[in-house]
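User: My collaborator sent over this chain with a note saying "see what the structure looks like." That's all I know about it. Can you take a look?
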Amino acid sequence: MRIRNLFVLGLLAMPVLAVAAAAEDPAVAELNQRLVALQADLRTADLAAFERLQAQQAIDVLAKAKRKDLDQARYLAERRVAITEATARAAAARREVDQFERTRSELLVEASRREANRARQEAERLRVQAQIQAEEAERLRQAAETETLARQDAEAALSSVAGKRAAQVTSAQQNAAKLAREEAELVSGQKLPASKFDGRGEVFTLAGDAFAAGQATLSSAGRDQLKALAEYLNIGKKGRVTIEAYDSANGVGQRRAQALKDALAAAGVAANRIQVTGKKAAATRARSAEVIVAL
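Assistant: Without extra context I'll predict from the sequence alone. Here is the result:
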């Protein structure tokens, strides 16, 4: 805990040290203020520490940049700050959803306990008052049905709110991924492969020209895409990566998947994050392999 506190104090001190440089470029002061705002917000004060450090470093580079490098330094600093904001807000939303789910579970457990107590009390009352009138029994039945409907309505409302929260988290994650893709392409100078989001996560598809026909050696176009993809995977230290490669020949799909893993590892992506699998299926012009990044 003490080390964490010192780290947070260091983050708070960085904007102060950049005040002198802010006089030369107003963007430095504005970006520092955005980081200070994140730190001042109780919901995000302890979140996105790694991204915040990267953003502060980018701001420091901007403050010291020469005139010819100002535009690129300013753009990188703004992207870093935007990624920090998006990451912090996504983490805050996830934490709120987790808290909401815990509260919901506690409420359901308490409701079940009370329902069980009421059932036991009602059974004892019915045992003692065996001669209760039929009208009273009907009234109690209707009251029980009303209570059940009310509980169902409450659970439906809770589920609806939880769904909205989850959608907000997903939207924030996708926005953060978009910013990270832009930064990766800018830093690497190459275009990322086409991507989409599905139930598996973020899926990048390498076209058929990434490999020569029937071969497991990356083409020049494939190496360029892997360079940008490695930069993207290293931004924010994203989740586990699964590589699926295809070819109709025996063993070629597996060798292609391994070649992609080796290229990413050589570019700085931790090898223990990457799983590979080859599939005996014909590669097409549109797809020779997929790189799946878990959200």
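A starting point for your reply to your collaborator: Residues 189-293 form a domain with the 60s Ribosomal Protein L30; Chain: A; fold (CATH 3.30.1330.60).
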